[in-house]
């Protein structure tokens, strides 16, 4: 995996001027004419991500007066690896670095690099502490050598809908590198940002509750799984934590759940008015009206009777800055303990 350094270039090193095609139709035509110039050395690059592969491709066109052995076109296509380790941005940088290596020795020439990847173009024009540093450093080393021989280098970004023929050839080469039958090249530097993003996504998936598991808990707390559960339980003595766990999971010593697992002959509440669920027990059972008074004093009017609020869960209506109200949670626990209903019978 690549190592990202604090900076790519020293502050005093000159940056490559990047021409971005975003200055109106007239300016666009001028840029295209410049990019088509047959007297210039032209490098067109492209990247591709499909079939779970990332590849790069490019083509180099050299004026006849400069060509070695009459060869004026060089084309390359390289499969870098899987989408779990690489991305089109770093692939584009790798393609530009590779294209520059194909150039013969030359003097007093203009070299134009054509790309349709805006992110790569901007990264080369203004390198920062970012992924792809190694390729950017290679690009600048090659450019420095070319400038030492009195050559001028220009990097031109053209959007995909304005691509020239030479860019379309580069795109075909890149797509060839991501055909299903190709084998990734070994030893290529893996993009750190892509690997980290993939790892984070996998960790998030691992922390998710499987479908069908904890359905009631997710109804009570839409933020599950989350770090707030440690805040809820770590501050409580064992007995209080046990009561809260019963109420938050629905697996409580109430007839509604006990009947479901065959531990009670009926799911009816002792009050005789409804099924004994957590909600009925907390808010509606007439047997516990006296014990319920303190709990109801801890909630604002719009939260009264909201099971998520009373049990430290996040309701669908709560915003991003939501945190559990521990005073309300403790009052709910005290109510449940005062009834004695959740104690082992």
UniProtKB/TrEMBL annotation:
**SUPFAM superfamilies tied to this protein:** Ribonuclease H-like
Output the Gene Ontology terms for molecular function.
nucleic acid binding
* Protein's UniProt name: Uncharacterized protein
Source organism per entry reads: Fusarium oxysporum Fo47
